[in-house]
Every structure is written in structure tokens, then in C-alpha cells.
User: Fold these one by one.
Assistant:
Number 1:
Amino acid sequence: MVEQIAHIMTPLFHRMLDIVVNRLIPQAGVGGSTEAVEYVAPKTILLAVGVLAALGILFGVALAIVAARFVVKVDPKVEQVRETLPGANCGACGFAGCMGYAEAVVGNPDVAVNMCAPGKSAVAEKIAEITGKRAEKIEPKIARVFCQGGASLSRRRFIYSGVMDCTAAVLAAGGDKSCEFGCLGYGTCMRACPFDAITMSADNLPLIHPDKCTACGKCVAACPKQVIELAQASKAVVISCHSRDKGADTKKKCQVGCIACGMCVRTCPVEAIKIDNNLARIDHGKCIVCGLCVKKCPTSAIKDHIPLRPKAFIDPAQCAGIDVCAKVCPVNAITGDLRSAHVVNREKCIGCGMCEARCPKKAITMARPAAAVAPKKSREKEPARV
Amino acid sequence: MHINWEHVLTIFIASALINNFVFSRYLGLCIFFGVTKRMETAVGMSFTFTAVMLVGAALNWLIYTYVMVPYQLGFLKIVIFIGVVAAFVQAADTMMKKMTPALYYKLGIYLALIVTNCIILAVPLINADEHYGLFESMALALGSGLGFSLALIIMASIREKLELADVPKSFQGLPISFVLTGLIALAFLGFSGMITL
């Protein structure tokens, strides 16, 4: 029955194809490099369809086999992480593009989640969520100005009257400032800052507003004297000088330069300061931000960026009177007899927090003074916290 | 089967220098301008391109000679050649990812570009039109691949130098590259008298 139908249908089908191809569209023409023919046999059309279908099936099956045999198991987390990343492929993480970092952070337990600099902590948190790793906070950074020698405190070698721009001024024999390491004060950083976080003080020094600064580094790149650096925001005690001149020379040129006297080195309770090339530098990994060096520096070259230092307060109920705090206090602000509650002299206390760290009874707390208490005297006013 | 080795060598040299696809036929310009900004990508592309060209031409020659010629399906060659190259490249892509991930990350990105390249399609088409044998086809494929690599490397080395040159603003980027390509093409014209096919 089926054979009979096929027997009748096949020539009919061929006839139909023949009519369609050779009668109905005889002048359609064939384009491309193909030889034009007068007559196309139905067999050729069927063959063409057959061969193409066969090749298609062959390739399809081959590709399916290849895909199944050579399947690479990609952790779906990698794809998730890659989508979370900014996709800029900037390489700031130290891996080859975002994909490289995504694979590393998912595959390697030692790779931290917070290495994407453009993504900041928002991306780090998401990656931590995906990978199940602990999100360590990205240590926030801030731009710090390593010069305090404003117009009134430093000398000028000559009168510069060119374009009021640091990059222009530096072309004139390295700038008019006698200290070749200092801030020229023509505000190139202020104009470079995309966040309006820099203003120039009355003394021609850049003031960085901590609330607006995103540590993008534009000012660092713009400053021709490399006076601005990015530093950890929490390490608020900074030696604000870059002068590598000898102490005597620095003193002649600027009233607030580091003269490498070594006072801070001797003062520092954790040995975080070293003098190198006539300039004291703080190892911020060791620094406990106690602020002792700020007090001791004879030229006030060290700047404390904490506007209001807390004061120690001893809870008399908990104090055992063991005198540890009095011994450890660098400014002798704590007095009291043995086995009786000790008292902090708030005038003397500099808020370094060392007594709090040493007290075995945890009787000492560092409390911020009331707003009425005047902020500690500083050479220049800290920009208002808005 | 008698093989005319002299002819094979002639085809090889002719396709690499005299009929260089980029400089005398102006094919494959998209990739040519795309990857020649840096030497590293140009070299990576050269290797991948030549390898795909050889295998693709061989596969297409097989299918053309043993399927399309006997059944008189020559008119399907464009469709089939593209399909063969696409299928092969896709398979190679998958296999490379599994077997040599390092190589995949270096060259994998070029594979996708190659599928739609006109030189890859032109070589099997020329092979088919000229009724070349296997060795002649391979010579044409290798010659074209190396010729394209030569063009890429020449252009990449010039464009790396060009970064430092003082190019007028309106000519910066692609325009000056086209001017350069024209000049190199003029230089390649000098090869034309070397061999007469």
C-alpha cells in the first residue's frame, strides 16, 4: 500500500518541482559565480537539499559529540562574579582582566574578594556573597598633602608671574618655591579634582575635604611636585613634608619642614618612624595613631588629621589603682595613689589611647570631649565636616 | 597521481607575495585593521589564522572533490564552505578550551573573528574554481596564511611606531592606516613581475 503510494507520488513530486523551477521561474536567473544553466533537473535539487541536510546533520552531531566530550565545567559562580565586576578589564586586581580575577577569586581560597579597585566595597560585598568568603573591608584611602609650607611659612626664590598653574610654574626653573619638594600652591590639584574635594586655603595650600575625597588619584597624577599621595584614611597622623634637604637647609627654606632631628623616632612608642634621606617617614602598618610625635615635633611638620582627639576617662568603680596607666602615660596626665582610683588631667591628656590599651581592668574609656571643648590648636583649620 | 611540485611552489610564493590577499586583493581588511594595533595580537592572530586556513582548506577540498564534484553541486560551494569552516572553528574552539586552556585564552578570541573572514572563504573558492589538487590547495592555503601573517606583522610594527609619530589630527587612527596600507601595497606591486602564473 505504502509502496504503491510512493510509486505514484515520486514522479508527481518530480514533475511538480520541474514545473516550479523550470517553467514558473524560468528567467529567475542564478547569481554569484554559479554557471547559469538552461535546465535544472529535479534530481539536482533533491540532491542539493539532501547533501546540505546530510552535512548539517553531520556537523551538528560532530559538534554535539565534541561539546559533550570536551565539556569544560565552568563554575556558575565564576559567571556570577564576572557579571558583578565592572568589566573594565583594567587589571588593577593584578589578574588578566575581569574574567581572570573572577576565576581566581572563585577557584583560589587565598584570593581576597576586595581586590577590584574600581568596584570598591559594593562589589567586594557581592563577590563575598557569591563565593562565601569573608568580606574584608577595603581600607578607605584619602589624598594627603605632604607639605604644610604655605605662602606665609616658606620662602620664595623669585617672583613668578606666569600662568597661575603648577604645571606651568614648574617649568620656570622648577617653580618659585625655595623648597624644591614643596607645594607650589597654584591649584592644579584643585582643578584636577572631579569631586570638588580640594580647595585652596588662604595660605595657598590645598585642603582636602575628607567627605568628598574618593581617593581617585587624579590630584596625585596632576601634581607636578608629587606632593599629594594616597594614604589610608584611618592612619591620620602624617609627616606632612617631603623635603629631603639637610635639616639646616630645610629650616632656612620653610618653618614647618621636617629637619630630620629624630625626635619623633625617639618618641614613637611602637618604633614606627624611621629617618631616611633626611626625612622622617611613618610606617603606617605599625603606627597606632597615638599622636605623640605630633606633640613632640619641634617644627610641627607632623600633622594630626583627627580634628578632635578623645580624652581618657577612668571609671572609679572599676579602677584597681595599680598605677599601670600612670606609668604608661607619655604626658603624665594620670595621677592617683596606689590602690585608689586614679584621675586623668583632661588638660594634659592628648588622647593617645595607650592607657586604655594597657588597663587590665578595662576601667578606662576614650570619650570624645563635648562639642563645647575647643578643638586642639592646629596650624590650619581642618576643613569643615559637612 | 602526478604532482607538479614546481606548480605547487609557484602557487605558494604567488599567494604569499604577489597575490597577497591584503595588499593586492584587498580582502580581510577588517581583521587586518582590527588586530594590528599591537604586535602581540597581530602575532597571535597570524598563528591562529594560518592554522585555521590550512585545516579549513583541507576539509573543504575533501568535501568539494568527493561530494560536490561527483554530484555536480558546485553551485553550493559558498554555502557549504562557510558551514564547514564555521563547524570546524567551533569544534576547535571547544577542544582548545578543554585541552590547552592557556592557548585558548591567548588565541581563543581570534577564532570567532576568523569564522567570518573573507580570506578563509576565498581560498577554498579559488581552489575549487582552479580545480587544484590537494597539494596545490595546501600550498595556496599555507601561502595565503603566511602572506596574511606577513601583512599583519608589517602593519603592526609600523602602527606601533606610528603611536609616536606626529600625525595630523584628521588623519589619526584608521585614515593614516589606510594610507600606509596603500603605500605597502605599492611596494608589494614590485613582486608582480617575479613569477608569471
Number 2:
Amino acid sequence: MEIKVLGPGCAKCSKTEKLVQEVIKETGVDASVEKITDMMQIASYGVFGTPSVIVDGEVKCTGKVPKKEEIKAWITK
Amino acid sequence: MSSNTTQAGTVRKNKSVLALNLFLGAAGVVLWWLIYQQLPAVSKWLTYGLLSISQGSHLGDSIEFFLYDTPKVMMLLFLVVFGVGIIRSFFTPEKTRAFLSGKSEIAGNVFAALLGIVTPFCSCSAVPLFIGFVTAGVPLGVTFSFLISAPMINEIALGLLYGLLGWKVAAIYMGTGLFIAISAGWVIGRLKLENHIEDWVTQANMAAVEMEEEKLTWNDRFIYGWDAVKEIIGRVWIYVILGIAVGAGIHGFVPEGMMASIMGKGSWWSVPVSVLIGVPMYSNAAGVIPVVEALLGKGAALGSVLAFMMSVIALSLPEMVILRKVLKPRLIGVFVGVVSCGILIVGYLFNTIL
């Protein structure tokens, strides 16, 4: 599974990345997490609020720090 | 059948949670009000009773100011941020964009400036938001109206102004802020600067992502407001305390009327100088408003002070650096120039009529 966290590097974005990492560790799901900070790349995903989380190419949330339960639901199904 | 009963069960559970939340909220407001009423007396007692500093001394003035304003501002911020958080849960950047993309210029500028107040916005997402707006067909000037109003008129600024300087100044700030956002956006739109956006932006293939809209219950909205309180107060409390500390120092130690000669209404250059000092300063509303309160108390004119505050909050170098990724230098120059002009007009206007 490929997870991408989009964000230029503000506090909320790092928090989102940390939460995603935690959930992966807790659930033991085999997934790679990539942080994308480049504006051009962020724009190419069609999102315009950061932080955003993208799981296997699908935009899961934009413009807010997701809750742990939400992340869990995205990566364990 | 069983799914129906569980659904009914969830609805009932949600309702009782809502009732509990409303009850706790009402009790909280009453408690809030009782504490708030006691602040002046408590700060006096702490300063002159507990710390036994002599009344009327510079140090006593400063400490009383600090001990009164800090809890007062924090309590007001708490309430305002929570309330605005609930309002914001009704808006998303996606909905705002969809609404603005069909609007003509002048109506678009007005709506963009108004929506800038209530749409959740963080300066770190200014760039993706800019790209999202422009590629969705929102006119450039309308996009700028949004980008000027969103950081400038926010719950932190309004809450602090209301708490420290009263509702009139808060209303003036909001009104003139909207005026600047609308008119500056309109001027930028008239100047036809679309070709000064970086090329990759207009070539960016922004296939709008259709996000499934979340259905929020009132409980979710309370949680949203509560999260906003934790997030925003957690971020700005240190600025509030620093700002009030500086303000307290000014309040106690700067002689009465000293600011009248520098930021007073008598000197024509006080407004432009206030703007020039304000632009490179990077602070947020939380840090600058307590200082502003103290300056006003020492004879600074409201127009000059408004101009100073607006240029600190609305025009900041870090934001320019972020926007440089999508705007060519000339467009950034025009943006700064037009907004500065708007701030100057506001400054002179209030120095003249008040």
C-alpha cells in the first residue's frame, strides 16, 4: 500500500504524517509513507487544502488533520 | 430489521450526547461569565495585596495590566474561537470555490472577501488554494479578495480587538478589512495580470477531486469547535503573553502622550511610517493587538494604529516567499502595492474623521 502525505511542512502536516506512521505501526499494515512537500507535485494531485492524505492514488482527506480512527479505516480494508 | 434497530439506537445515543453537550456548554458559559466578572478585582488584589506593590507606581500599573489582560484575552479567545469553529464547520474551501467560480467580478470580490472570514484557512495552504481557485475559473482578482481577507480578518483578531478595545474598534477593523480585500482584489482584477502567474500553474492539470461530502452532526460541530480551540490557543498563547507583556511595559513605563508625537494624527507621515514598520514585522494578531491597545492608551491615533496592525497581519514577508512559487515578481509587487494603498487610505480616513 502506498500512502502519501501532502503538505508544505507546516505543523499540521507533520502531525498528520506522525499519526499515519503510528497507525501503520499499530495495525501492522504493510505500507510505505511518503511526505510530499513540493508545491507542483501537491497541485498535481488536485487537492487544494493541506495536509492531505492519499492512499493508493485515492484522495482520502484534505485540509485537516485526520483522526486516528479515520486513518485506520482507510488502510485496513 | 436488526440494522434498523441499531440505527435507531445510534440516533437515540446521538441525541442524548447532544443534550449532554448542550448542558455542559450552558454550564460552561455561566461559569465563564462568573469568572470573567471577577477578573478586575482579582488582578487588583494580586498586584497590590498579594505582591504588595504600591498603588500608582509604574511597576504596579504594568503588573496589574498584565494580570488582568492575560486571563481576559485567553477567556475571550476561548469563546470566540469555539464559536467561529462551529461556524467554520459549515464551510469548506471546496464549497467556497464552487460558489465563487460562477460569479462575476464585483459580486465575486464581495463574496470572496466575506467567505474569506468563515472558510477554514491556514497560510501554509495558501498556494494550493490559489492554484485550486485559479484553475477552477475563479477570476484572479476574486481569488485575491479571498487571499487578502482570509488571513487578515480572523477570529483571533476579532476576539482580541473586541476584548481589549471594544466592539466598535472590532467592527471598524472588520469593515475596513473587508473594504481593502474587496477593492484591492477588484483593482488587481482590472489590471489584467493573468499572464504574471507562473506558467506551471496555468498548465497544471487540476482535475478537481470530488470529495464525498461529510455529513456532520451537531456533535461533530462541537468537536470541530473544540479542536479549533485546542489547535489555535495551543499555537498562539505564547504570542498573546509576549504581546501583553510588551503592552504592559508600554502601559506602565511609557509617558502619557508620548505616542501622540510619533503615531498621533497631527503628523501626515505617521500612517505611511506605521505601514513601513509593519510590513517586515512578522507577528500574528495575537501578538500585535495587546501592543496596539497600549499604544492607543499613550495617545497614538486610531488610524495610524489600524494601519500598523493591518500591515503586520496582512502583509508578511514569509507569505510573499510562499506566494512567489505561483506569482511572478511583478504580480507580487502589485499585490503589496495595492494592499498598502488600501491600508494607507484606511489609516488617513480614521485619523481624519476621529
